[in-house]
């Protein structure tokens, strides 16, 4: 993948130390796959983030939660999964890719919002503490019986004591798993309530679980059902099949325009993860549909054929000039070809057409101008990037372009401060402090830039 193309889809790694919620079977895999602190591959994309926010907003309102206080994070994994941590909902890109309708993804989000609204994480932490107490007490009890048996030369008592010590952890684990299964069912019930309140069908939620059962993802085959963090899927589906069909909206279909947005997002995910082959697998029923052609244009771009990709995306723009994401992809292609000013114009058009106020997209205008290397354009580049960062200050990649822009016009202190900010947002606090210290030496004490650098240096 070309460097510029990785601007949006570059998988950033964020700390997942606090994300020990048992709602996520994937977390264990992440912890096992990484050395040191566990990490998650997070992907930023204005198009897909906007779509998921639109899916979530009415559900959050129905649940009595503020959309401004809940963050949606895309995890660059092709498995079907979603989970919650703090006030964040993490959803795998594979969940979107494998959902043929918006309603299926919406059902998954409704379930996760059920966990948030129910405060399940806080209670889970209490339950985990209780499970640890059970394990400790069982071990102490077992040790006492074993010691008594040994003192009295009773092999039977000693054996029973050893058995209790060995089973103490198992008792605690079963207790915790049973609690989690209860919370999963509660989240299912809450999800059905939110879907009914918003006039949406629960069919997608039901079909998602039926698909998981068919693929044997949640069935726990070959394992003790009490060791599963989810209820047995047949029990869950039995409840959903009855409750979902009672909804007056069960047969309601997604609006065609929403289905198109959903498929365009799936096409982008397919192209970036599996190229043209995955796009064909995803849209094999209609390779001439707009989503299939969109995915093909992106795949062509990623394969190193920008001229052909530009022709393909221009044809899509001609057929649908008001689709912002076609202009965004055109901007990416033009940046790759070294046509920064034209790329900035394409990104600007995408911002104008986008229904969401995306800081990522806004910053792209300035980033494209930076690639021109023209000092006369750097002030405009800085203004556009800053405008995007005002909306989304955690866009660490934009700081890299901001530093380049400042460096291009000789403002070394500001370039080093932007670099420090970028490292800070990326979670590399050591390097952030190094660059902040270097930047601070170039500013007059007490000025806003000096204070900003000082904040990075002194924050623990």
Automatic annotation (TrEMBL):
Pfam families: Peptidase_M48. GO terms for biological process: proteolysis involved in protein catabolic process. It comes from the Bacteria. InterPro entries: Mito/Outer_Membr_Metalloprot (IPR051156), Peptidase_M48 (IPR001915), TPR-like_helical_dom_sf (IPR011990), TPR_rpt (IPR019734). Residues 57-242 form the Peptidase M48 domain. Residues 1-28 form the signal peptide. Keywords: Hydrolase, Metal-binding, Metalloprotease, Protease, Signal, TPR repeat, Zinc. The keyword Ribonucleoprotein does not apply. This is M48 family metallopeptidase. GO terms for molecular function: metal ion binding; metalloendopeptidase activity. GO terms for cellular component: membrane. Its cofactor is Zn(2+).
